[in-house]
Amino acid sequence: MIKTSAITKTVTTSQGELSILQPISFEVKAGESIAIVGASGSGKSTLLSLLAGLDEVSSGSIYLDGQGLHDMNEEQRAQLRGEKVGFIFQSFMLVQSLTALENIMLPAEIAGLDNASQLGQEILEKVGLGHRGDHYPNQLSGGEQQRVAIARAFITKPKILFADEPTGNLDAANSGKIEQLLFDLNRDSHTTLVLVTHDNELAKHCQRQLLMNAGELSEVTASDKKTDPIDVLAPTESQAG
Amino acid sequence: MTKQTFNLAWRLFKHEAKRGELTIILLAIILSVASVLSLSLFSERLQSALTDKSAEFIAADRVLNSRKPVDEAWIEKAKEFGLNTANQVYTRSMAFSGDNMMLVDLRAAAQGYPLKGTVKIAEQPFAPGQATDTLPQSGNAWIESRLFQNLGLSLGQVIEVGDKTFTVSKVLSEVPDAGFSVFGGDPKVLINEQDLAATNIIGPGSRASFSYFFTGSDANLDDYYDWLMPQLDKELQSWVSVSDDDSAIGRSIAKAEQYFLLASLLAIVLAAVSIAVAAQRYSQRHYDPVAIMKTLGASKKMVQQVYLLQITFITVLGIAIGTVLGFLIQQIVVWALAGSVDVSLDVWFWRPLIIAVFTGAICAVLFSLYPLLKLFSVSPLRVLRRDLGASLSSRFIQFLASGGAIFSLMWAYSGNLGLSAILFGSGILLVMSLLLVTFGLIWLGRRLGSGKMGAWQLAWARIRRRAMDNAIQLISFAVTIMLLLIVLVMRNDMIAQWQNQLPQGTPNYFLVNITQQQLPDLQAHFAQENVDIEHFYPVVRGRFVAINDEKVSTAVSKEDEEPVERQGREGLGREANLTWSDELQHENVITAGKWFDSNEPLESGLYGVSVEARIADRLDIQLGDKLTFNVGSEIINTQVSSLREVNWQTMQPNFFFVIQPQAMQGYLPTYLSSFYLDKSRKSDITDLMKPFASVTLFDVDARIEQLRGIVQQVSLAVEFILVLVLAAGALVLIAQVQASMDERQQELAILRTLGAKGRLIRASVLFEFIIIGLVAGLMAAFANEVSLFFLQSQVFEMEAMLHWEYWFIAPVVGAIVVGALGMVGCWRLLRLNTSHLLRQMV
Q1: Residues in B lying within 8 Å of A, measured between beta carbons
Q2: Domains plus CATH for chain A?
Q3: ipTM of this model?
Q4: pLDDT, tens digit, for every residue of A212-233?
Q5: Which chain B residues are closer than 8 Å to A106 by Cβ?
Q6: What pLDDT is stored for residue A43 in this prediction?
Q7: Within 13 Å of residue B210, how many CA atoms lie on the same side as its CB?
Q8: Nearest neighbour of B296 by CB, restricted to A45, A96, A106
Q9: Which of B47, B156, B691, B790 could lock onto B422 through a cystine, CB 3.0 to 4.6 A?
Q10: Whole-number Å distance between alpha carbons of B141 and B341
Q11: How far is B320 from chain A (nearest CA, A)?
Q12: Nearest CB to B292; choose among A74, A95, A164
């Protein structure tokens, strides 16, 4: 479903070129769930932005469901996102001036679906917020807002779902519920899930875990899983230092 | 565009409007439409009413003056164009009564005259006149009071004009088209046009003027003129409208019109500034929704459509509310003025509505264009990296787009490139200076704002940190204050000038033809009767015959008429009143050369003459030229020693030529003078003048009253316009503070979270706004002086002067008002609790 080959990202700063991602190659199969873990600043959000077509690679190639993202312009990438990709963000990213139901309907409307309202209402029921459809985001709790965001992500039945720290802004109780909801929906709709987090518990729910460290990506093996990936990171960081 | 796109745009608009998110931008559009509509509708109505009023001075909306009768078909054509017509023949002729005779201004009016204004008649010479809508019947004549005096007539007696005898049936007190020349007029005699032929005074070579009056709608009048113009003989015929009126009233009204135009222009600029501020804020608030939509797969086109639709909804709503509000505001002004202004203000005009809607739409589109372009350029990556703003960022494009838009609006609306250029130029100057000052302030702030972190330091830190934002905010405050200052100061200067022109006690009677022998008796008599009469001007009538020994055309035409043919150098075209004096008259200013400073002749051996600047310009007279006058059989040679600017609007005796007294010794002058007699003593005038039957008396009381009345009404209208613009300006300031409060919200939330006391935050915001208000006020005072200098000297033809008081008032008031507005905005934010503030930031 996702195939990357030697992708890199460099940015120009006042001190010259800065390499954020070293050449990265990996593959994610359809229906698979992977977690990209790593410390803050390791480059995992940058990788997510490239995989989701929100940003352009500096070199290398990315194929999403067989389509080459690296050859596309912003408009084409937007179209691909609209057709095949769903998103969940740490800060929910709901449009403040639309109600919960309207936020959920947004991707369906962008895709030009006629039954957006009906679909929205159905999925709103599924995430347990059927009665809160006409509430604005700032009238909902953090957990509720994230449930709306999850509903929004699934309304167009995307093939791939990208989630950036989906529980990062939530307390433990809400985190659990959101995790449950996310994985249940993912399983039911056979979506490929790419999750960025530094929450090990969340990462463990995924079939595979990839560790991002200073712009380099490595697969976390079964033996690594016995310990926290963050612990695995520590010696590398000290070595780098 | 898909149905979904429209629905989404509509839904966003509906919710945002409901939640008050659109208040600022909506308010800005409403304000622009309302202020432009109310100002221009009111000024259009007032102008129309005043034009109507001043049309009375030419007795019609338009007059065709001709040296010979015009083709009857022209008049028929005018009727086809839906115009009302009337006509009158003017000529000068001798009127006889027994052995007495006098040159009179004979007017033969046809039915319908006057189309505008009224003729007033009385039963007693010098008695107040009553309006009449009739004309003298055939065989009757109505004559002016002084003709009774000069010919020793009383009502019911007869006068002869040409071959016809007329019974004097009424005293003619006033005709609307009398003109403002105090000395030029011979006494008027009004007869019926039917009797003119019988007088036999109109024949080949006679100097008659045929006037044809027209009234009707402006459009019809213009259409008729377009039809007529190609057929006019420029040598013989002229087309006159009220705007050609060069009298004091004509000029006052022209100035008032320019003022209204200025005020409306400034209102447009104010509106534009507020829309620009609001659009900027609107755009910034939508960075997130745009990033989200793009992330969810919306194409750039779709995002553009959604937001262009939103702006369209906002604009349409703003224009609709603004139109209603603007109409209500001006209606309130009209009601408030109803008792004071003696003109009807209920005519509806479409032009202001079109202008207002156009302004609202253009402002909304042009000023939101750049912020929208910025908005469209927001990257979807912002969903992950919140610090990412818009990728399009060019203040230069923004300034160019907004500046170009403001200038084109001003130019399109005023049709006056000069006025627009002056205002725009001073605006640019202000912006440049402000940028310099702001960066100067930042440098200064680094010195002043160092030390322990208190309110003062926080204020400076904020100013420093947001240098560019603050520069823009400063500029918008300063521009607003400057525009308000211009409107205020212009109004003060203009009204002061009008009032100076006709202070209480302005002479309302003129005496002409006082002989040398009569002078001491007259002075004694007036003193005895308690009437102040100060200055007596010696006058001899002379003909101006040559410049530098080159003969000028001396064909003497009658007063107010153009010479028929001009050969060689142009002359005055009539006899001039020559006077002499050591002293420069009040309200006369030497513009070249110098006033007589000795009793000696000039180097050339000739005595000096001081020439009025406008006539010198018209006759191409230069300083040092030799001017020759012919008085009776004597020749007087003089040399131009100075040029004078004369304020003709003062209703004081004024002269084209003032000769050095020594040159005029030996000439027997008559004297002229003016005096003021209170209205309550009007009936004393006959007794006062009885011993001096040969002295001619001009009563200009009615004219002065008319003039003063109009000046008062125009002044009042100007006051109301000022209030409207001030209100608009105040609202703009509030909008600006509100918008900037938004930017402060985040910082306030953080300060609060960190435990800063409300007092510290309030004080720091207060200091910040006081500093901004102070600087903005100071810069506005500076820019105001520059703009006023050009406006007054180039557009309003007034004497430009410095206004030192505003160098103090503007910064102080700026600091107080902006500081207070800042406090109110801050207080609103501080009422919200911290978690609410933080949540709003997300």
Answers
A1: 2, 4, 7-8, 11-12, 15-16, 19, 21, 288-289, 291-300, 302, 379-381, 383-386, 839-840, 842
A2: 2-240 (3.40.50.300)
A3: 0.88
A4: 888 888 887 766 555 555 544 4
A5: 8, 292-293, 296
A6: 86
A7: 15
A8: A106
A9: B790
A10: 35
A11: 24
A12: A95
